[in-house]
Amino acid sequence: MLRRVAGPGCLRTGIRGTPAGGPPDGDRRRAAFDGADYAFPLMSTGEGKHGDDTPTESATASSPAKTGRRTGRRTTARRVRRLILLITVPLALLWVVDTAGNLRQQEAPPTEAAQEGAGQPLVTPTGPPDAPEERRARPGESHGVSVPPPDVGFARETEVWSADRTLTVIPGRSRVYGEGPVRRYLVEVEEGLPGFPRAFAEAVERTLGDERSWGGEGALSFQRVDEEPVDFRVTLASPELTDELCAPLLTNGEVSCFNGTRSVINQNRWVSGVPHFDGDLETYRVYVINHEVGHALGFGHVNCPGPGELAPVMQQQTYGLQGCEPNGWPFP
C-alpha cells in the first residue's frame, strides 16, 4: 500500500495504520525511517502546478531525487553502524571476560605443592656457631643443644681396614663448657672413612661438655676449636692409620690409644664397640672418648674396684670388665 507524503514527486511505502496524509511534520523523518527501509522517486503525476520542471518552494530547498538519495545514504549508513555494533559489542564482551580470566589466573595464589617447594631452605649447616671464648656454658650446656644423658649412637657404619691416611680438622668452635681451667682441643677425622665426620666431632663435644665428664665438680672446662694452639687432639682413624699414629704402642688394628698429644679412636671400635658391652654402643663411645682424653689430662690406668661396681673410666674396659659394670663417665 503506497501513501503520499509531504513533498511533491516522492512516495514512500506507508505504515499500516498511519492516518491519511502521514504523521505530523515533526514525525515525518521518523515515520520514513521506521516504516520504510528506503525511498525512491516517481515520475511526475501532473498534479504539481508547474510540473516537475518548475521549481517550487520545496524544490528550491532540495529536489525530490536528491532528497531520496540522501535518505537512502543515511539509512544505509545507519544500517552499517547497527551491523558494526552488533558485531563489535559481543566481541568486546568476550575480550573482557577472557582478559579477566587471565588476570585471575596470573594473580592466583601458588598451589600447596608450590608453597611447600618455596621457601623450603636448601642446606642447613650443622656445625656450632663461633662464640667468644669468654662465654662459658653452664654444666651440661652445649651451644644451643642440651647435653644428654648423651645419645651419641650415630648410624653404625661398616668396619674398614684403611682409608685415605689424610687427617682433616673439623671446622667450628664451641662455647666453653664448665667452670674450671680451660682445656682446648680440636677434632680431626681421616678422610675416606664411612660415616659423617661432623657427627663424630659433635659426639666428642657433647661428651666432654657433659657435667659427668672431666669437667664435673668444677675441675676443668673444655672448648672445641679448629686451630692451634690446643692442649690435645681427638682423632678418628682407620685401624691401619691408628697403628701408625700409636706407634711404638702395639694396637694391632684393634684398639685405640693416646700418644703424644693425640687421643686416637679406632674406627672399628667406634663402629662396633666390644662384645662385653652387650650391644650398648652409646655407652662404649662415651667411654672410649673419656678414657683416651683422660690420658691426655694425665690420668693412668686403674683396675675394677670390686664385682658389681661401676668400672672406673680409666679401667681398660675394651679388654674386659673384671666383674664391674660398664661405665663411660668420670663422675657418673
UniProtKB/TrEMBL annotation:
Compositionally biased spans, kind Basic and acidic residues: 132-141
InterPro entries: DUF3152, MetalloPept_cat_dom_sf
Region named Disordered: 1-28, 40-75, 106-151
Domain of life: Bacteria
Membrane-spanning intervals of the chain: 80-97
Residue span, DUF3152 domain: 162-322
Protein name: DUF3152 domain-containing protein
GO molecular-function term, one example from the UniProt record: metallopeptidase activity
Classification via Gene3D superfamilies: Collagenase (Catalytic Domain) (3.40.390.10)
Keywords, in A-Z order: Membrane, Transmembrane, Transmembrane helix
Listed Polar residues bias regions: 56-65
